[in-house]
Amino acid sequence: MSDRRFSPLRRLFLVPAAAVLCFMLLPMTVVVLIALGESATYEFPPRGLTLHWFSNLLHAGPLLNALFLTSLPLALTVAAASLVVGTLAAVGLTRGRFLGRSALEVFFLTPVVFPQILLGVALFLLFARANVPLTLVTLGIGHVVICTPYVIRAVLAGIGGIDPRIEEAARNLGAPPARAFMMATLPLLRSSMLSGAVFAFIVSFSDVNIALFLSAGDTTTLPIRILAEMEWNNDPTIAAAATLQVSIISVLLILVQRFIGTVRA
């Protein structure tokens, strides 16, 4: 009965929602069609479709090196590090009772709202002042700074939805506090931790602002390489590289969504 009553209202909101979705997907659609086009320049709409530029990508050494030797290993490492740091911080903020806990929570989330271009400048000046050379490690540190807040927020939301009596029951059965948390609470946080790790991977994998200041000659990430290539030529191979990057993120999101659904079921 209620479905029939609110169905016109739902249809009313469906139209602007579909319009916003199309607007968000339009830039990616343009990039994909340019990568599939026959023209040797950025042409939209394409006059014909071909996979030539993806084949050409296989021989584009700088782009492939930036993807497989820098961006992917870096994003995976940053996701793992952010998962550990963010989970520990979220648990400490939830279970800890100390002065300034709310202020510390806000502080942990500042990299999300703080302009990342300014954060990149600050990190660059910090490493330069400390005479630390720019390497993949310094770039990873910068990415952990901007990725950890996403893990913290996801895990905080997950802990907030867990009944604390579950862990209390484990303690009443004789389990030490650490073991009770590991056996009773942590398994219930798997979907939240996985979501946070995925966000951390995506942020690191697609970052430009931090990498723009912390990348060295041998640690250029794929977004920075694409940006540099676009300044000097309009080869659709660049669009093919961007399409590959978007495809990796999309496939990852689909797999994680299916996995989280399995866990919750």
Automatic annotation (TrEMBL):
Origin superkingdom: Bacteria
Gene Ontology CC terms: plasma membrane
Q: Which keywords does the record carry?
A: Cell inner membrane, Cell membrane, Membrane, Transmembrane, Transmembrane helix, Transport
Q: What's one GO BP annotation on this UniProt entry?
A: transmembrane transport
Q: Which InterPro entries match?
A: MetI-like (IPR000515), MetI-like_sf (IPR035906)
Q: How does it sit in the membrane?
A: Multi-pass membrane protein
User: Does the entry feature the keyword Cell membrane, yes or no?
Assistant: yes
- Transmembrane ranges, per UniProt, are 12-36, 72-94, 106-128, 134-156, 193-217, 237-256
Q: Where is the ABC transmembrane type-1 domain?
A: 68-257
Task: Fetch the PROSITE patterns from UniProt.
Answer: ABC_TM1
One of its Pfam families is BPD_transp_1
- Among its keywords, does the record have RNA-binding? no
Q: Which Gene3D superfamilies match?
A: MetI-like (1.10.3720.10)
Location(s), subcellular: Cell inner membrane; Cell membrane
Q: Which family does it belong to?
A: Belongs to the binding-protein-dependent transport system permease family.
Under PANTHER family, the record lists: INNER MEMBRANE ABC TRANSPORTER PERMEASE PROTEIN YDCV (PTHR43357)
Q: Under what name is this protein listed?
A: ABC transporter permease
Species of origin: Propylenella binzhouense
